Amino acid sequence: MASSTVERFAGAVLAAEALALVVVLGWQVVALLSGDTIDVPSSLALIVLTAVAVAALAAFAISVWRRVSWGRSGGIVAQLLILAVALGAATGQYGDPGTAVLIAVPGLAGFILLLAATRRAAAERDDR
């Protein structure tokens, strides 16, 4: 069955988040190679974790586009983690509300779209 508009938008948000993390990953690699890091093992660990997040978000994006349920549930968890990062960016000694909003807006949009896609899939399953 073809994906709906909601699923396409949700997949596009997940793909855009994966692409944004690719940019962050490149920035981390450049910082490591230029010696702009204090702790090399921590930098390497962060690079690996960022690469895993890129792979996960890309897999979620593809599966949401293809209407696979694990992609929706994984995408919802990813959006909740993104919203937690946004909350952390807004609070604390070095909190920056502008950065928090830039992180939270796509996270909230993705969350709402994934919930709508999940509801749509459940309604179609009940109609059969």
State the end-to-end distance. 13 Å
> Could you name the ranges where pLDDT drops below 50 across 5 or more consecutive residues?
none
Tell me how many strands there are.
Answer: 0
The helix/strand class is mainly alpha
Q: Could you describe the largest sheet, including whether it forms a barrel? A: none
Keywords: Membrane, Transmembrane, Transmembrane helix
Describe the structure using short key phrases.
128 residues; 4 helices; mainly alpha
Structural write-up:
The chain has 128 residues and is mainly α. The protein has one domain. The protein has 4 helices and no strands. The protein has helices at 5-33, 40-65, 69-90, 97-127. Helix 1 (5-33) runs antiparallel to helix 2, helix 2 (40-65) crosses helix 3 (69-90) and helix 3 runs antiparallel to helix 4 (97-127). The longest helix has 31 residues, at 97-127. The radius of gyration is 17 Å and the shape is elongated. The two termini are 13 Å apart. The mean pLDDT is 94.
What would a concise description of this structure say?
Keywords: Membrane, Transmembrane, Transmembrane helix. This protein has 128 residues and is mainly α. It is built from four helices and no strands.
Lay out the secondary structure.
Layout: H1 5-33, H2 40-65, H3 69-90, H4 97-127
Helix pairs in contact: 1-2, 1-4, 2-3, 3-4
